[in-house]
Amino acid sequence: MSTPVRILLADDHALVRRGVRLILDSEPDLTVVAEAGDGAEAIALARTERPDLAILDIAMPRLTGLQAARELSRLLPGIRILILTMYDNEQFFFEALRAGASGYVLKSVADRDLVEACRAAMRDEPFLYPGAVTALIRDYLDRAARGGELPARVVTEREEEVLKLVAEGHSSKEIAGLLFISVKTVERHRANLLQKLGLRDRLELTRYAIRAGLIEP
């Protein structure tokens, strides 16, 4: 038998990780080698464990699954990535594809779809749940009708990182330490966010972060 696929599993709910691990470890060709409780921990573990596949929840502390996916795609170009989420949301789905994910699996049907999604990812094949296929077709038809491309991101990746940490209640000094940037740089990003998004203060930034799926309400 060939060596099992080595998997990094990241979700901030221990019970979810336990259930998903039971599904994966029951398959002879899959094995979970590391678990993370947030996106930043997932990146750190990926550096040391060098997994073949990362399964990331979207809504996690410090870094979301989408932010972690973008960073993992840069750090480890050969890694396969799956997004495991409770959100049946077209915006998150397209962001996952842009971030380098091979598939998007809903937690509600993980017991049915996750194993096949892992195997598809390792074959370099996309895995899309039925609603995602519908979204892709609709998006293609819409863009064909408009003759345009997908809209550019409203905020940069770094601004998104700062936004998430601001919404989680971190001070500028704490954010600077977490992102290895200066306090002045944090304040500049915060000011840019307020101006770009037309918001006034931390409370409105937090509300925006919830709507954008960066943090859970």
From TrEMBL:
<dbReference type="InterPro" id="IPR011006">
    <property type="entry name" value="CheY-like_superfamily"/>
</dbReference>
<dbReference type="GO" id="GO:0006355">
    <property type="term" value="P:regulation of DNA-templated transcription"/>
</dbReference>
<keyword id="KW-0804">Transcription</keyword>
<dbReference type="GO" id="GO:0003677">
    <property type="term" value="F:DNA binding"/>
</dbReference>
<dbReference type="InterPro" id="IPR039420">
    <property type="entry name" value="WalR-like"/>
</dbReference>
<dbReference type="InterPro" id="IPR000792">
    <property type="entry name" value="Tscrpt_reg_LuxR_C"/>
</dbReference>
<dbReference type="Pfam" id="PF00072">
    <property type="entry name" value="Response_reg"/>
</dbReference>
<protein>
    <submittedName>
        <fullName>DNA-binding response regulator</fullName>
    </submittedName>
</protein>
<keyword id="KW-0238">DNA-binding</keyword>
<dbReference type="InterPro" id="IPR016032">
    <property type="entry name" value="Sig_transdc_resp-reg_C-effctor"/>
</dbReference>
<feature type="modified residue" description="4-aspartylphosphate">
    <location>
        <position position="57"/>
    </location>
</feature>
<keyword id="KW-0805">Transcription regulation</keyword>
<keyword id="KW-0597">Phosphoprotein</keyword>
<feature type="domain" description="HTH luxR-type">
    <location>
        <begin position="148"/>
        <end position="213"/>
    </location>
</feature>
<dbReference type="InterPro" id="IPR058245">
    <property type="entry name" value="NreC/VraR/RcsB-like_REC"/>
</dbReference>
<dbReference type="GO" id="GO:0000160">
    <property type="term" value="P:phosphorelay signal transduction system"/>
</dbReference>
<feature type="domain" description="Response regulatory">
    <location>
        <begin position="6"/>
        <end position="122"/>
    </location>
</feature>
<dbReference type="InterPro" id="IPR001789">
    <property type="entry name" value="Sig_transdc_resp-reg_receiver"/>
</dbReference>
<dbReference type="Pfam" id="PF00196">
    <property type="entry name" value="GerE"/>
</dbReference>
